[in-house]
Amino acid sequence: MDRSDERPAAVAHRATLRDGWTLARTFWRDRTERGAWALLAAVVSLTFAVVWLNVRFSAWNNRFYDTLQNHDLSAFWRELRVFALLAACFIVVAVYRQYLQQRLLIRWCMRLTHDLLQR
Fold first, then answer.
1. φ, ψ for residue 6, nearest 5 deg
2. Could you state, in order of their start, the residue ranges of all structural domains in the chain?
């Protein structure tokens, strides 16, 4: 396909991605920013944990409403304890993920500001 056949939006999108990579490349390739890779790995891992917990919430929701439908009081209380445990884990993981994501963002902004002032 000839590049002249591309739509202007696709060309603009490609240029935006290229410009974004140009900004990000100096940060991610710098050997002094190895801690940023660890932060990124932690954020991605915690994101997967949040997704896993959401799947567990979905399964819990199914069991909980089955319990309500069956009028099973002992299972009801058990499912409430499971919910409390899931909710506590979710809150801890989600808050820590947000904290690490913000640390990574601040680190990146500081680096970009430093590079801008150097120029």
1. -70, 150
2. 33-118
Instruction: Please check the confidence at residue 2 and state whether its pLDDT lies above 60.
Output: no
For residue 111, give both structure tokens.
């680096």
pLDDT in tens, 13-34: 788 888 778 777 777 777 777 7
**pLDDT-derived band of residue 4, with 50, 70 and 90 as boundaries?**
low
Task: Name which of 47, 41, 50, 40 is nearest 86 in CA terms.
Answer: 50
**Count of CB atoms situated within 10 Å of the CB of 43:** 20
Tokens read off for 118: 């150097």
Alpha helices in the chain (DSSP H): 8-29, 34-70, 73-118
Amino acid present at 18:
R
Residue 93's closest CA among 37, 54, 60? 54
